[in-house]
Design a protein that fits this description.
single chain; mainly beta; 0% helix
Length: 113
Amino acid sequence: QVQLVESGGGSVHPGGSLRLSCAASGFPFSRYVMSWFRRAPGRERVLVANVIPSNTTTYLLDSVKGRFTAFRDNDKNTLYLQMNNLRPEDTAVYYCSRDSMTWGQGTQATVSS
């Protein structure tokens, strides 16, 4: 059974950091492109990052460049999103995805003063 479980969300002040994790199981993780998406309140879900099997980030949302880093550990079947210098507009539910068809339950990140 394919399963994606996100963790690491929370509430931080502007300028703070969070590291999100996505634990994958039930499929050969190292063979798949993995993605982070986010859905802000009242808005559509948007792609934040794509990470190919070689741990290269092939896409990063313009508004997070220089602040967010997406990477993976294929030995641990885990995808990560390191979020630094967070802004209120980064407040969203963050989801990891395989092929934009399999989704985790999401983890909430809230940035407020």
